[in-house]
UniProtKB/TrEMBL annotation:
InterPro entries: dGMP_Pdiesterase_EAL/HD-GYP (IPR014408), EAL_dom (IPR001633), EAL_sf (IPR035919), HDOD (IPR013976), RNase_Y/CdgJ (IPR052340)
Pfam families found in the cross-reference section: EAL, HDOD
Organism: Vibrio algicola
Name of the protein: EAL domain-containing protein
Gene3D superfamilies given in the database record: EAL domain (3.20.20.450), Hypothetical protein af1432 (1.10.3210.10)
Length: 410
């Protein structure tokens, strides 16, 4: 299955691209699908920010539409303020609840955009907290926009004219005082297609129940997340944006996030899930993760078992996403040793991965030699592989026992 995002550039007075508006799509057809706006926004955010290293793409700014409820729940705070501009949709009621939400987001460093703006007295109190106002020149004339700009010179506002279709409209908007521009005259939306990976449906149901509690059981939520490739991958990208350091464990990351951010992160991830079957590489990757983890724990050598788990889990990301593995893991907060093991199968972690692969492919000589390298008996490696194979089945993995990276009882 694939995800689709339309990306339309925003340009300045020199027609240079300064930002992009991200638009959700369900196919290569460049129209907004019939879908609940909250679900559409959630999927766009997850698939662009949690499954992509946006900081390494082009360091541009992204404008994203947020429906009313997501603003009230402070959903934008899950994403880096330096990359994101929050578009307030035209159908949002300018009430006290929204005003408080906008004030809060502004105080946290987020830039607020009023999309398809139609002036009214009810919006006036919002203006001190607004960075950019977008006028659709098909719905609100350039002359009317110019009057509004003149009347509100006291505010440090920037203005964007959208749906510009020819040079005469562009020049008229420049003369009126607009700062930024968007429309087919400059660039049509570009559809970006990416492979997406799904979480197991039973894990999603467990997470739904877990986040409904007033106080979240971080140990149990960590257990669920680290047993799911998709959620672990999303969490790593999220932590890279907010706490850029080496990813030690799922449990530690949840402790850093705190109760409310955990609820927001998981709620957004759950809303964005699709009703489809995980890739066949999903289960084999989980089996490999458990195999690598157990081999690392069993070996008398000093091996980071958590990192061994992650290299097993992510060793088939290239097949899951249909992108080069080196590109996919470049932005992940793994140790350099783990990245070297994944890309070149070097180092002690590389030996762990090679042994797991040898076990999967029943390569007898390699199993014997690599087991010896790790100071293991061959029968120990074979037993670990058999146990990992059992563990990777849903019926076993989600039993109420501690099989997590943070503390196996096996």
């Amino acid at each position: 299955m694939y995800s689709y995002i339309a990306r339309q550039p925003i340009v300045d007075l020199d027609s240079s691209i300064v930002a992009y508006e991200l638009l959700f799509r369900e196919s290569l057809v460049n129209t907004f699908p019939q879908m609940d706006p909250d679900k559409a926004t959630s999927r766009l955010l997850i698939e662009h920010f949690f499954l992509t290293n946006v900081k390494d793409i082009d360091r541009q700014i992204f404008l994203v539409n947020f429906p009313y409820q997501s603003l009230i729940e402070q959903m934008p705070t899950l994403f880096p303020s330096e990359l994101l501009m929050i578009e307030v949709l035209e159908d949002c009621p300018p009430n006290d609840e929204l005003f408080d939400a906008i004030q809060s987001l502004h105080s946290k460093g987020y830039r607020i955009v009023l999309d398809d703006f139609v002036p009214s007295d009810k919006w006036q109190r919002f203006l001190p907290f607004i960075t950019l106002i977008k006028f659709d020149i098909r719905q609100f004339s350039i002359a009317e926009a110019q009057v509004f700009m003149h009347q509100n010179k006291a505010f440090k506002l920037k203005y964007l004219a959208e749906k510009i279709e020819d040079d005469s409209e562009f020049q008229a908007c420049i003369q009126a005082g607009f700062h930024y521009f968007q429309g087919y005259h400059f660039h049509r939306p570009e559809i970006i297609r990416k492979r997406r990976i799904e979480s197991a449906s039973f894990m999603i149901e467990e997470l739904k129940q877990a986040v409904q509690q007033d106080i979240i059981d971080c140990d149990y939520v960590a257990h669920l997340i680290e047993n799911d490739i998709t959620m672990t991958y999303k969490l790593m990208h999220f932590m890279t944006a907010h706490h850029p350091s080496t990813f030690v464990s799922v449990q530690q990351s949840l402790q850093l996030l705190g109760n409310e951010n955990i609820k927001l992160f998981i709620s957004l991830s759950i809303i964005a899930e699709h009703d489809s079957v995980p890739s066949p590489y999903y289960q084999s990757s989980m089996q490999r993760a458990q195999c690598c983890f157990q081999l690392a724990k069993l070996s008398p050598l000093e091996i980071d078992a958590d990192q061994a788990y992650f290299i097993g889990m992510f060793s088939q990301l290239d097949k899951l996403f249909e992108q080069p593995l080196a590109d996919l893991i470049q932005s992940l907060p793994l140790t350099s040793a783990a990245k070297l093991a994944l890309t070149q199968q070097q180092g002690i972690l590389g030996d762990i991965l090679k042994l797991a692969l040898a076990l999967e492919n029943n390569q007898a000589d390699n199993i014997v030699n690599l087991s010896a390298t790790l100071s293991l008996e061959t029968h120990q490696a074979l037993q670990v592989f058999a146990q990992a194979n059992d563990w990777s089945t849903p019926e076993f993995r989600y039993l109420d026992i501690d099989t997590s990276v943070s503390g196996l009882k096996q």
